[in-house]
Amino acid sequence: MKQHYHSRIKPYLLITPALLLAVLFSYRPFILTLINSLHTISLSGKHLSFIGLENYRRLFANPSFQASLSNTLRFTLFFVPTNIIICLSAALLTNRSGKLATLNQIFFFLPMAVGLSSSMMIIKMMFNPSIGIINRLFGLNVQWFNNRHAAMALLVIAGVGLDIGLDFLLFSAALRNVPTDLLEVAQIEGANGRQTFRYLQGPLISSTLLFVVVTNIKDAMLISSPVMILTEGGPFRSTQTLVYQMYLDGFKSGNYAMGSTIATVVFLLTFSVLLLLMRLERRRVYYQ
Amino acid sequence: MKRLIPIAATLFSLIVVFPIFYTISASFFPYADFTAIPARLLPSAPTLDNYARSFSESNLLLFLTNSLYSALVGTILRMTISIIGAYAFTFMEFRGKNILFILIVATMLLPPDALILENYSTIRALRLTDTYLGIISITLLAPTHLLMLRQYFKTVSREYREAAIIEGCSDTRFLAILLLPISKAVIITLAIHSFSTIFNDYLWPLLVTNRESMRTVQVGLTMLGFSENLDYGPQFAAITVLMTPILITFIALHNPIQDSVSTHFTGR
After folding, report:
1. Nearest CA in chain A to B228
2. Minimal CA–CA distance to B77: which of B130, B120, B131, B139?
């Protein structure tokens, strides 16, 4: 009897740590964030009063938030296509065998070995307007950190640097999975490179492409650490993003309710992206 | 046209790898090389001064120890939690099994960055700020690991376990002498992934550590005090120290890495 009882309780014991962590660090904070966004909150973190959607109204009327939202969307719009074009062309260009191609492949995924804060510090130093190598090497005088457009471009460059390693590997893996007999047939039939990609490789890597596009969009909407290290949202809030503002409101200015409201907006944005992925995945993608 | 592809690929890949090359090269620059005209790509007279200074004038070594320690402990705990969880979900029958599994895996939909405000209050309420447990806390649950391990464990027939249990073998023994050895490859891949995730984390350790002595290297690296004074040599040296072991690993293991990406992400 004791044995029986023991074997019934055992599976629960084994999953308790995972379950506890899921509740403690995902569901509980998620629900509290939603609740907080509907209240005014004192500096010590106590709920003062329930105010419905008032925080959201205030948030959307707030110029700083409007800037964050538009910066985040602009960043996403610039970053995702740039990153996809760069990573996909890298994968297409090195989709061969041979020593040189292998060396090129290694160079393309090597940025993955450099951690986030190292990459950001490297970029910060290379793009320093006075003694950074980039301006001096090309004889430029771009104020990378004091010009709105340059700062946004820098953030896009930083984003590509962070993602190129993995995204390149994903695209090359997908391209290598295109059956060689199909490629040979295409060649015999006289298809050029563009036609081969348009009608053969493109459709066959579409599930990978969709996956990379959606994860890129999600990551772009959540970008904060590169902003923190590189630009601190400047100049004039031109690179202040949603999660960065959430961090500023929640931790620096003690505006906890606003921070929670921004967090909720971020949840909604990422959920809609994931929903989009699920719908598209069902409809558009060709599987072999 | 065909001839141009290797040339284009090589030029392109050199641009991508240039920051890494320049970082290593600049870590050997004497101070004057940073302002030399025309701009230098290689040191005029290679020096190790920058390395000496990055260690002696900052707490780099301490930060590195903190990071290695938390990543190691974090990885062990994270793998243990994932393995025992996946074990129960694969081999045992219990009430609410499916819903509990979905509950755990669905946490993937909640981006950790948007949860940091509340998670920080939890950690503060538990008095875990400035502790290793605080640093690793939110990384301990890895729903993707649980999912992948369960997929893998499923390939082992449940009859094996039932036979083993009837023969008087305990779950622990079954796990230790059969399941873990045959899952070695996937466990190592996931452990490496865990280690680098925890080691590379920036935002969370920044929030939960205030004392310099508890700072991790990713956070510490941005606050060494060199780059602020345009004293780039020691900063590049510190970055080189940090990235070289990983670069070497990546170059040495480029084949298995490419293979594992193609199996884990594209699922073929």
Report:
1. A125
2. B139
Per-residue pLDDT at B267 exceeds 50: no
Q: Do B258 and A105 touch (CB under 8 A)?
A: yes
For residue A73, give Cα distances in angstroms to A70, A79, A220: 5, 10, 8
Q: In B, which residues are within 8 Å of A10 by CB distance?
A: 88, 92, 171
Inspect the interface and report whether the beta carbons of B250 and A104 lie closer than 8 Å: no
A115 close contact with B: CB closer than 8 A: yes
Do the Cβ atoms of A71 and A241 come closer than 8 Å?
yes
Instruction: Show the domains of chain B with their CATH numbers.
Output: 13-58+233-268 (no CATH), 62-223 (1.10.3720.10)
Residue of chain A whose alpha carbon sits nearest to that of B239: A118
Nearest by CB to B117, which of A10, A33, A120?
A33
ipTM exceeds 0.95: no
For the segment(s) A62-283, the CATH number from 1.10.3860.10, 3.40.50.410, 3.40.50.2300, 1.10.3720.10 is 1.10.3720.10
Tens of pLDDT, residue by residue over A15-32, are 999 999 999 999 999 999
- How large is the average pLDDT for residues A126-139? 91
Cα distance from A284 to chain B (closest Cα, Å)? 17
B117 with A133: Cβ contact below 8 A? no
Map out the domains of chain A as residue ranges: 62-283
Q: Determine contact: A140 vs chain B, CB below 8 A.
A: no
CB-based contact B142:B85 (threshold 8 Å): no
Query: Which stretch of A73-82, A185-194, A221-230, B50-59 has the lowest confidence by average pLDDT?
Result: A185-194
Which residues in B136-152 are b (16+ Cβ under 10 Å) and which e?
bbbbbbbbebbbbbbeb
